Amino acid sequence: MQMMTTLSEPEMLAQFADRLANTTDAMAMSYFRNPLDIESKADDSPVTQADRAIEEEMRRQITETFPTHGILGEEQESIRLEASHLWVIDPIDGTKSFLSGMPTFGTLIACMTDGRPDLGVVSIPPTSERWVGQRGKPTLLNGRACKTSAKAQLADAILYTTSPDSFDAAGLAQFETLSKRAALRRFGGDCYGYGLLASGHVDLLFEMNLQPYDYMALIPVIEGAGGVITDWDGQPLTLASEGKVIAAASTTLHAEALAALHSG
């Protein structure tokens, strides 16, 4: 007689998040590089019918499967924020890349347990790459463990940010401080850059004006690959953070980058 295996809660949540990402990937690719209706939100950022349709489907599946869980997303009002389990979702992270045909956008899925991001998924539909981070486990890229580069010195680091347009004057000066000491700087990528950091191709990311749905899924992915991700003061990222994010391939590199910021 075959024994039945009961999944633990973390395993159940991870399997659900993986199925959800399968759905979002397929939906995103059905819209990608096809004509889109583009609107401007209150903050002048663009939104398309793809963003809205994908988030609607994500919310439907989460609520149907976990009716007591909360949801914080980019395109609709949050629900049940006080719930012990909170899903933090971004249907298309990198809408500007998405609507301009650049294959570097992704879907972000995080599940927080009692205020802590225990599960994070970064799924990049055009490249079929998916990073999954779970607290206490190695980060997986398409099912295989991945690691950061472990670079320890800023002088050896490849530094990325999505766009200089996202910084205010003070933030741009901080970015320039890091750029002058880094080996190389590049722009673009949105959430894809964090996946590349988790896999050892990028060493340092520096951004501001992010929202919780932009960074919550990144935390388990970066940490499970051996990296560090905090705010610019080195404090843990929470739902109440200002959206200033720095991620590094090692604790030593992270410390050097923070020291450079505060000395500058």
Automatic annotation (TrEMBL):
Protein keywords: Amino-acid biosynthesis, Histidine biosynthesis, Hydrolase, Magnesium, Metal-binding
Keyword Magnesium attributed: yes
EC number: 3.1.3.15
Superkingdom assignment: Bacteria
The protein's required cofactors: Mg(2+)
InterPro entries found in the cross-reference section: His_9_proposed, Inositol_monoP_metal-BS, Inositol_monoP_superfamily, Inositol_monophosphatase-like
Annotated pathway: Amino-acid biosynthesis; L-histidine biosynthesis; L-histidine from 5-phospho-alpha-D-ribose 1-diphosphate: step 8/9
UniProt-listed Pfam families: Inositol_P (PF00459)
UniProt catalytic activity: L-histidinol phosphate + H2O = L-histidinol + phosphate
Stored NCBIfam families: his_9_HisN (TIGR02067)
Matching PANTHER family: 3'(2'),5'-BISPHOSPHATE NUCLEOTIDASE, PHOSPHATASE
Family designation: Belongs to the inositol monophosphatase superfamily.
Record-given protein name: Histidinol-phosphatase
Organism (species): Pseudophaeobacter arcticus
